[in-house]
Known about the structure:
mainly alpha
Amino acid sequence: MKLHRVYALVARHLYLYRRSLPRMMEIFYWPFLDLVIWGFITVYLMKFQGQIPGAVTFFLGALILWDVLFRAQQGVTISFLEELWARNLMNLFASPLKPSEFLAATMVMSVLKVMAVSVVMVVCAGLFYSYNIFVIGLWLIPFVVNLVMTGWIIGVLTTALIMRFGQEAEVLAWSMVFLFQPISCVFYPIEVLPGWLQAIAWMNPAAHVFEGMRAVLNATVSPVAHLAWATGLNVVCLSLVVALFHWMFEFCRERGLLVRIGE
């Protein structure tokens, strides 16, 4: 073993972290987010001293719905990365294919992935935990539609950033969605967040969906207001990120960045 080669390889990887925020996020991001999420869950459990009615219903339902959002995001982003890894971006965009058509195809892929994963999770939840996600009733349909749209928003945003900053930003394909998890209030109600963070969370469509889910399961209030907010925010945010994607595409095309990241 030649130690100088080992040293050179270690130094090479250390240099990659010097000016790469995404790679730095990979180191600090996961432990921090785990601490935040499970910390809020602990606060919630302590508040009710373990006497939470229907805890399994809350957590399993939230887990399945969160996976809908996650898979929708992955469907968009991974489809882009597949083209990047196959060095096929130039071939695609040298053809008459438009960016809007490319985005539409990735969204269709994400829906197919959501459908496949949802079937598996619903069946497994029923088999292993005797849990029926359809206890939510017809409200489940608008909940899922809104979560898919939120997944598209995060997926298109991530794709635009990868297209702009290249392969060093690829880690965002797996980590970006978890940036939104603490303020999506998947496993805990929004009231456990600090006041300033609640204001941010209310601007997140997913937070309204999960608050609506809890309202349905608790049979307290109608989730119509939450769904209206989620839909409105999704439409606005999706329009913005699609516009950002087109702007970023033109920016990269004019500067030849597509050639650089695609080769």
